Each structure stands twice: as structure tokens, then as C-alpha cells.
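Why do we care about 3D structure at all? Because function follows from shape, and shape follows, mostly, from sequence. That is the central idea of this module. The next example makes it concrete: a single protein chain, its amino acid sequence, and then its structure expressed as C-alpha cells.
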Amino acid sequence: MKSTVELHERAPLPLVIAHRGARGHAPENTLTSAELGHKVGADLWELDVNYTKDYRLVVVHDDTLVRTTNVEEVYPGRSSYRVCDFTLEELSRLDAGSWYEGRDQFGRVAAGEIDADTLASFKGLRIPTLEEALLLTKRFDWYVNVEIKNHEHLIGHDTVTKDVLEMIRRLDMADQIIISSFQHRYLEECRALCPEMATGALVETTRPEDPVALCRKLGVNAYHPDRLILAPGDLENLRDAGFAVNVWTVNDMDEAKDLVAHGASGIITDFPAACRSALGRG
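And the structure:
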């Protein structure tokens, strides 16, 4: 198996990265969404890691559970709906899939792209643990971008990197994973604790003054910019300096093609099937 570092060096093919799984057609950060991403041929998927109250690693994007579960119905009147204020056992009672049909965030239900049987299968989906998500990836002989959410103002700021890396090593999956984070301290910790692990610096809102210098300082393998903060020349300069560039979140396929034409190594998208087709990958 190639490592994630080698995967990024597989030019000229750009990587298609399924954002929180195939989020455009399934509830994000569930095993179902990951399985769909794999089924449509994404090169890897991306997930988000948060801590529970009892320091278990779970796959949830937001700090709170409100948007993607029925937490307010199951636990009415709780003073907090933050992930870190619930135990893993409490999270196991939540439905992480039924919200999808009613919210229809990408309009794909209304467009008739998701049939009734598929929608019914989303009901009762659970929040996966990081271990469950990694074992699914391992079973598929696949790859995953593990984004460690910023815990600076939550529990576990000093331990989350160590715990994530320990799990990856225990499962013998270091060559199948790239670690990314907006909290760049975690990437520096990763370099110190597990120098063989591929890492990517996430950036949003404000473009770093010198993206190449930032990547060199952090010792990362890849730069993961919000598509909105790319400046002319960034893609070429980063690639020339030896860094992969995976751009998020790109759902306009003409934009995806343009980014790849200018040097993007990978496209992080909610629609991996459409992205593969647009990039001539199938």
C-alpha cells in the first residue's frame, strides 16, 4: 500500500477527497457517508474528531450536537449541547441521520437524487467513534484525512493529539492517514510525537502572509486552504516548494477543474462522484 505522502505525489492525478464522507448525498461524518465516498471512488475521505465528556474520540464536526442529531429531543432542557458535555454512552442514544431529509442542505432530496429507501436507511444512524471510522477505512484498504478540531476552549486541549496518534499507532494505520487541523499547535505536536505521520495545515478566513513559510515552519506535508483565500500564484509556489495543496470545500466542478489546472493536488468536496467525473477520473 502507498502511504498518504506517496498518494499526494501521484501527479498528474489530482486527489478527490470526500468531505465528511460523501456529504452531498448522505449524513456527514457517519459510516454511511464514508461508505458512499468509497463506493463512488474517492481517493480518501475526511472526518472531524471531537472529545466526549469521558474523553472518548468521536466523529463530529461541530462543537455542539444540535445541527446533526436529535439531541434536543432526547435530552430536552440540557444546559449545554456541546459534544464534550456528553458521555459516549449518552451519544449512543442519538439519531445522527434523520435530520438529513428535512434539512436537505444541498437540495439533493428535492432534486430526486436520493430515493425513499435510501432516506429511510439514514434514520437511526449513530455517531461513530474515531476507532470505528478508522477500522472502516482499514477494512476498505483506503485512506482518511483526520481533522483534529480545535479544543483550545474545550476539554482535552493538551491531550487530544497524543490520544489520536496512540489510536492510529495501535491500529497500525500511520501510512493511511493524514492529520490536519486549524490548531497548528497540534500539527507541531504530531511532528514531535510521530514524525512519520503526514500532516496538513488548515487555514481559513485570513490568508497567511507567506503560505510556503508557514508550511516550512510547521513541518507539514500539505497546505489545506479555504478556496476563498487562495491568492494568485499560491498553488504554483506551494507545489514548487514541495507541498501538496488540498483545497476545500469545492462543489463547483468548473472551479475544481480550474484549481487542478493551476496546480491543486487535491479537491476536498461534498460531491466526490461529480468531482471524479469532472476531473476525468471516471
